[in-house]
Amino acid sequence: MKCFGKVNDRDRLFYYKYLFATPRPVLGVGNIASTAKQLHEEMYTQLAKGDLAPVEKVLCDGIAKSLQSRVSSRPRNQIMEWTCHSHVKRPRIVSLRQSPLPVFMGKSEKGKRVAIVQAVVRLHTVQSLMRRSKDGKKGWIQDKPKERIEYLVLQRMMRNSIQGPWKVWGTTEETRPETLLQLA
User: Fold this and answer.
1) 3-state SS, residue 82
2) CA 38, CA 34: separation in Å to the nearest integer?
3) Distance separating alpha carbons of residues 168 and 58, to the nearest angstrom
4) For 182, phi and psi rounded to 5 degrees?
5) HEC profile of 105-129
6) Residue 9 main-chain phi, psi, to 5 deg
7) What would the pLDDT profile of 87-127 be if each residue is shown by its tens digit?
8) Which CATH class is domain 9-183?
9) What transmembrane ranges does the database entry give (predicted)?
10) Run of H or E residues at 177
11) Please, what sign has the CA dihedral across residues 59, 61, 64, 66?
């Protein structure tokens, strides 16, 4: 028996696209995976360099603070270089959700709404990290390229029917059945 009160993700996206606001927002689902790939590479390249200023505009507050604390906790005389060698599989959208938010300070006018869209993108890459000291005495120490599966969470805000850019909200891990059984 189907519950009539239950709304699934596809229904929410339909509502967001066609009924939520005017003019109709463009979802741009085809560009989300490539945007995630680009933001992932920019974020980790700058994290390895220890300079997050170039990517501050594409990071949400939580992950920006987390990455900044990782940079500040690393040894001062160490230089790093991150490399993404290849993508084993194409980036894939795992989840795409939207949620209307209460109107931020101001009057609620018809068509002037606030919403948030979040996408979780699976990135299967081969990557490595090279390290050396600033004085250059030890030379480069290169880690072996490792195959990694990461889940990057992107977020986009819509205010007054205008969508903002995609930003990196954070990362997450895949939920496994064993984990769910432990929680029960």
Assistant:
1) strand
2) 6
3) 6
4) -70, -35
5) CCCCCCCCCEEEEEEEEEEEEEEEE
6) -60, -40
7) 999 999 999 988 887 765 444 555 567 888 999 999 999 99
8) alpha beta
9) none
10) helix 177-183
11) negative
